[in-house]
């Protein structure tokens, strides 16, 4: 059967969506029913230095207003806090809370479990080959974790 480049792109996107949706559902089962993939991207960006709405918006490829809404949601849910910059008391800085870091750790563990499920379905050698081919085609770090822009299934927050 002949496949187009668009079919390949949709298969790759489908693989990502399948993993992201399964991880979100598992996080909900583990008590994190209030998170979405964009929250993970935002917390990773904050951990990597996006300590205000403007910078978070740049890193997520969203408006400052959309980033501010996400920050508000993350603060309300206890995943992010905003404190005073020790070098400039007028400036507020974002940081991920211990609860937020635990959520990130749980998400990483779930993705490891999902990878094992894929390995069980297609075999260890096939999964290793798939990963090797993808690294060859897109590089070892094809996507910055703090730059999803197009990823959210639903709108922010």
Radius of gyration from CA coordinates: 18 Å
Biggest beta sheet attributes: 2 strands, antiparallel
Residue share in β-strands: 5-15%
Distance from N terminus to C terminus (CA atoms, Å) equals: 41 Å
DSSP, total strands: 2
Mean pLDDT across all residues, rounded? 88
Low-confidence stretches: 147-157
Which H/E pattern describes the elements? HHHHEEHH
Explained architecture:
- The protein has about 160 residues and is mainly alpha-helical.
- It is built from 6 helices and 2 strands; from the N terminus they run ααααββαα.
- It has a two-stranded antiparallel ribbon.
- A hairpin with a 2-residue loop joins strand 1 (about 80-85) and strand 2 (about 90-95).
- Helix 3 crosses helix 4.
- The longest helix has 25 residues, at about 5-30.
- The model is unreliable at about 145-155 (pLDDT under 50).
Give the gist of this structure.
This protein is mainly alpha-helical and 157 residues long. It contains six helices and two strands, in the order ααααββαα.
What's the SSE blueprint?
Layout: H1 5-29, H2 37-47, H3 53-60, H4 64-76, E1 80-85, E2 88-96, H5 98-122, H6 124-138
Helix pairs in contact: 1-5, 3-4, 5-6
Q: What are its keywords?
A:
157 residues, mainly alpha, disordered C terminus
């Amino acid at each position: 059967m002949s496949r187009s480049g668009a079919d390949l792109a949709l298969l790759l996107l489908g693989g990502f969506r399948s993993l992201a949706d399964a991880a979100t559902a598992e996080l909900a089962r583990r008590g994190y029913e209030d998170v979405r993939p964009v929250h993970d991207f935002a917390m990773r960006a904050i951990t990597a230095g996006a300590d205000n709405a403007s910078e978070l918006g740049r890193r997520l490829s969203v408006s400052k207003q959309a980033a501010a809404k996400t920050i508000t949601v993350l603060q309300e849910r206890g995943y992010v806090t905003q404190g005073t910059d020790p070098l400039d008391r007028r400036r507020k800085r974002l940081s991920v809370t211990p609860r937020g870091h635990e959520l990130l750790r749980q998400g990483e563990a779930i993705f490891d479990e999902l990878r094992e499920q894929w390995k069980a379905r297609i075999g260890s050698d096939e999964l290793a080959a798939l990963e090797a081919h993808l690294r060859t085609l897109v590089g070892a770090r094809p996507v910055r974790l703090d730059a999803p822009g197009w990823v959210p299934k639903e709108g922010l927050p």
